[in-house]
Amino acid sequence: MNIMNVAYIGVGTLLLLWIFGNLYRRRKNWNKVICVIASNCTCCGRCLKRCSRHVLASVRNETGTQVAVKYPDKCTACGDCLSKCKFDALKLVERI
């Protein structure tokens, strides 16, 4: 067996595992959506940068600037923003 064939098989296997892992993660949380706990949010913006679906947005209200869920229908509950939040201001809740 050629070394290139082994490399192609290895890369292909890793790619398939990555794809199926992401599909499983999204399928597992299909009935959940992200929720912002306003009292913990410092509006640092780390979660905004991490969200690939642009679900979260920074809004200004009478108490100041904070993060809000702008497009909950786009949220796949992947948890990427959860991993970036150091202040426990985000959590996954059941969709209504």
Task: Describe this entry's structure for a reader.
It is a single chain. By secondary structure, the protein is an alpha+beta fold. The radius of gyration is 18 Å and the shape is elongated. The strands form two sheets. A two-stranded antiparallel ribbon has the order 1-4. A two-stranded antiparallel ribbon has the order 2-3. The mean pLDDT is 86. It has helices at 3-28, 46-50, 80-84, and strands at residues 32-36, 56-61, 64-69, 90-94.
Strand order of the largest sheet: 1-4
Spatial shape: elongated
Query: Helix share of residues?
Result: 25-40%
The main pleated sheet reads as: 2 strands, antiparallel
Task: Give the tally of structural domains.
Answer: 2
Annotated CATH architecture of the largest domain: 2-Layer Sandwich
Element string (H = helix, E = strand) = HEHEEHE
Contiguous low-pLDDT stretches (5 residues minimum) are none
Give the structural class: alpha+beta
Q: Using the coordinates above, name the CATH class of the largest domain.
A: Alpha Beta
> Could you name the CATH topology of the largest domain?
Alpha-Beta Plaits
- DSSP strand count: 4
Radius of gyration: 18 Å
- DSSP strand (E) fraction? 15-25%
Overall pLDDT metric: 86
Oligomer: single chain
Distance between the termini: 54 Å
